[in-house]
Amino acid sequence: MAILEIKNLSVTFGGIKAVQNVTLSVDNGEFVGLIGPNGAGKTTVFNAVTGVIKPSGGEVVFDGQVLNGMRPDKIAHLGIARTFQNIRIYPKLTARENVEIGVASIPKYDTISAMLRLPHVRRWDKEVKEISEKYLGQIGLMEYKDVKAGSLPYGIQRKLEIARALATQPKLLFLDEPAAGMNTAEGLELVDFLKQVHEMTGITIILIEHHLEVVMNVCSRINVLNLGQLLFTGSPEEVQKNPEVIKAYLGERRK
Amino acid sequence: MGYLEGISISICINIVCVCGIAILTGYMGLFSMGHACFLCLGAYTSACLTKYLGVNYFLSLLAGGAVAAAGSVVIGIPTLRGKISGDCFTIATLGFGEAVRILMANIGTNLFGGATGLSGLEHFTNLKSSVVIAVIAIILTRNYARSQHGKIALAIRDYADASELLGVNIFHEKLKALMISAFFCGVGGGMMAHYYVYIVPNIFGNTMSNNLLTSVVLGGVASITGPATATGMLTAMPEAFRFLDNWRLSIYGLTLLIIMRVRPEGLFAYKEITAPFTALYRWIKAKALKPAAKA
């Protein structure tokens, strides 16, 4: 069953067609890769699905609901979470507080009871704290829970961002270049980590990545974008053999 | 009423206002250049209630705060919605502040007294009640800042787009912060009206807004007691240096410059003055609990 269906999606910025007529669907529980050369429109697809930018054409259907024109926070509550190419964790909050924002993005109590710190506020805050620690434990970041997120090492910040996204209990998780700035060894460690997360939670994951060894290792299916258009969809082996993909990535031999 | 008592009451009034603005500016990262208009709304509401209807002083303060909060919605809805930047909000509040001040000088002249102001108010504000209200304001805003709302405010300040994608309703949280700041300013305005016993629209001008904003920025981001201390300092300093005549204003400016140069995020950024005490309390609690846990 398809959890996400993108039909003829187009995004234009002024005269530039960043994404043109992209159609792809993702099945429930799949681990899908989205690759392509720089400027192929990968992040733009993410942005269009999560409501950050308005698509100029086409339709995005998630879990039977059309997402076009919906506010990003509404889309998030439907069950789509994402991480960012450049890390966007809250540097001044501790690791646990970062996850708390994901767990409780809408406080269950009103402003006045928060100011009076009524018993149900304390109870709920404690509950959120415990749930957050559960997520940190799952990802293996328990030892950093009281550290300011901004002072954590880069790799841990990446993991924290994933933990925060998972804390929103998504059905679909977008990962935008989680291995950016990592070397091959760190990238392979990330592969294990992502596989673990996928097995543990069973949620659908869509991954943008430039490190091909990461994508080839974790994804069951890979979509290749080039110049805003979908070039190819297939298994990692097929993608590696496909002449079109090789041409897009490496260029063509002069004849 | 003694000179020192008068300064102390002024400090308390400023603390009440600054606590609210600390939520808006220190936590949410929104800068307002027109918060004096909320003091104005609060002052006139509370003054009219006690003068014409004989309402209880404390109730009139609450009513003043409520009217100010309602007034903040008028400016909040168009400026905090969607992807409008914080700079737009700042400029809009600047205009709104002036508009309210001029409106108060020109509408309902027989009720509000127009530009000559409203006089003959009862002197209800005394030191004891002012201190109590200031402490309550600190506790309430501190509780808010500690709650999930406060954490979300910091999250929005740092990365609004990322917060929205986590499901945070940015508009609601910003509007709540604005309403809280307006409420406390309204209460402060009511206290001010019954301290001066005479209010004119002109005292709620840009100078007052700027002084309040200065206290918050100087006191430090993401702190309540920091701005509260800062406003105390800024209110007392020109009085303390009165023997220096006109030099005191230069010294005032110089002090601000030096502090902002040395600590750009403010004196008590991300800290509360009570921090050592809470640390001590936790330590004692941990010590007391440890033997019990072992047994």
Could you list some keywords that capture this structure?
heterodimer, A: 255 residues, alpha/beta, 4-stranded antiparallel beta sheet, 10 helices, 10 strands, 40% helix, globular, B: 295 residues, mainly alpha, two-stranded antiparallel sheet, 13 helices, 75% helix, 1% strand
Percentage of helical residues of chain B? over 70%
Oligomer: heterodimer
Could you tell me the number of beta strands of chain A? 10
Q: What series of H and E elements makes up the topology of chain A?
A: EEEHEEHEHHHHEHEHEEHH
Average pLDDT confidence of chain B is: 91
Query: What share of residues are in beta strands of chain A?
Result: 15-25%
- Please provide the ordered H/E string of secondary-structure elements of chain B: HHHHHEHHHHEHHHH
User: What value does the Rg of chain B take, in angstroms?
Assistant: 20 Å
Radius of gyration of chain A: 19 Å
Percent in strands of chain B: under 5%
How would you sum up the major sheet of chain A? 6 strands, mixed
- In DSSP terms (H or I, runs of 4 or more residues), the helix count of chain A works out at 10
Task: Determine the structural class of chain A based on helices, strands and strand pairing.
Answer: alpha/beta
Regions with little confidence, pLDDT below 50 for 5+ residues of chain B: none
| Greatest interface (CB-CB under 8 A), with counts per chain | A-B, 37 and 29 residues
Strand order in space, largest sheet of chain B: 1-2
Distance between the termini of chain B: 59 Å
Strand arrangement in the largest pleated sheet of chain A: 6-7-8-3-9-10
Helix content of chain A: 40-55%
**Distance between the first and last residues' Cα of chain A:** 45 Å
Shape assignment of chain A: globular
